[in-house]
């Protein structure tokens, strides 16, 4: 068996066309979705990612505001800027690009963003709403994974889903989204005994551990759907995922590549959340 490739780049492009149409409709009502991104310090990877968000906003007709702060900025100053943006009616989405310097409390920063503008979906209130199946902003990468499956015609209800990884950004929330759609979910992590015992039961396997080529063919069952969230560099410096793509693709039924898999969906769903926030602001 050779797996069908789930092309995240193509699916993201399709979704962005639909978002652009809705942005145009909203602008005709006098509302332009606005996203503010705060970047603290000189992290090159973060800057590259932030620039890609700016580009996406421009392409979709949204307003983008980049606020750059020095590495040594005080926690108080950062929180003050967030509070200012919370009150700005032209800004519908706020995110602080992670990671941030260690002298600043990350939890305090996340919780200072208004849940109504938390387009990253990280605020505890929005996480709680997600857990209970309420209308909220869903974390962008997990949300993107669900859209990939939906667009690929892959059903979720009743399936055994194994998530390898338990981060607050991907692992935990994606498992909850699967549970919300009636899957049976198993979380695995660094303390899991006999990982293959669990992963070999998976109809859908999500790899989000941050270790290059960690998931091999022996970890999956024939015909499984394999979602690779990892973005790593191998020993040769080449971009790769958490899944050993060549060997796993010969056994899986569906697989996401790296790049052009999950990655393009993250920014796309951020744009979607910003549009959603702008729409909901009309009724407030």
Give a verbal description of the structure:
This protein is an alpha/beta fold. It has two domains: 30-116, Rossmann fold; 139-263, NAD(P)-binding Rossmann-like Domain (Rossmann fold), CATH 3.40.50. Helix content is 40%, strand content 15%. It has ten helices and eleven strands. It has helices at 8-27, 44-60, 75-86, 106-112, 124-131, 140-151, 171-180, 195-199, 245-248, 263-281, and strands at 4-5, 34-40, 63-69, 93-96, 160-164, 184-188, 204-207, 225-228, 232-233, 239-240, 254-255. It has a six-stranded parallel sheet with strand order 1-11-8-7-5-6. The longest helix has 20 residues, at 8-27. The protein is globular.
Overview features:
284 residues, alpha/beta, Rossmann fold, 10 helices
Summarize the structure.
This protein has 284 residues and is α/β, with parallel strands linked by helices. It contains ten helices and eleven strands.
């Amino acid at each position: 068996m050779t797996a069908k490739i789930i092309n995240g780049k193509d699916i993201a492009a399709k979704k962005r066309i639909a978002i652009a149409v809705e942005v145009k409709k909203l602008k005709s009502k006098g509302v332009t979705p606005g996203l503010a991104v705060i970047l603290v310090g000189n992290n090159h990877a973060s800057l590259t990612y932030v620039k890609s968000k700016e580009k996406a906003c421009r392409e979709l007709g949204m307003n983008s505001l980049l606020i750059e702060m020095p590495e040594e900025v005080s926690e108080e100053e950062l929180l003050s800027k967030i509070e200012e943006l919370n009150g700005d009616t032209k800004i519908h989405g706020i995110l602080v690009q992670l990671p941030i310097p260690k002298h600043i409390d990350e939890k305090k920063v996340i919780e200072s963003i208004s849940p109504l503008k938390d387009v990253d979906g990280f605020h505890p209130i929005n996480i709680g709403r997600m857990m209970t199946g309420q209308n909220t902003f869903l974390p962008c990468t997990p949300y993107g994974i669900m859209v990939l499956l939906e667009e690929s015609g892959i059903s979720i209800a009743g399936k055994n889903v194994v998530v390898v990884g338990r981060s607050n950004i991907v692992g935990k929330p994606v498992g909850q989204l699967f549970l919300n759609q009636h899957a049976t979910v198993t979380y695995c992590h660094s303390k899991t005994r006999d990982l293959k015992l669990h992963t070999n039961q998976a109809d859908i396997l999500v790899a989000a551990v941050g270790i290059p080529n960690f998931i091999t063919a022996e970890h999956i069952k024939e015909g499984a759907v394999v979602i690779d969230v990892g973005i790593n560099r191998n020993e040769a410096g080449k971009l790769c995922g958490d899944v050993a793509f060549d060997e796993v693709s010969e056994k899986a039924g569906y697989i996401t590549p790296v790049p052009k898999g999950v990655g393009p969906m993250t920014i796309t769903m951020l744009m979607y959340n910003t549009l959603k926030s702008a729409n909901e602001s009309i009724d407030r």
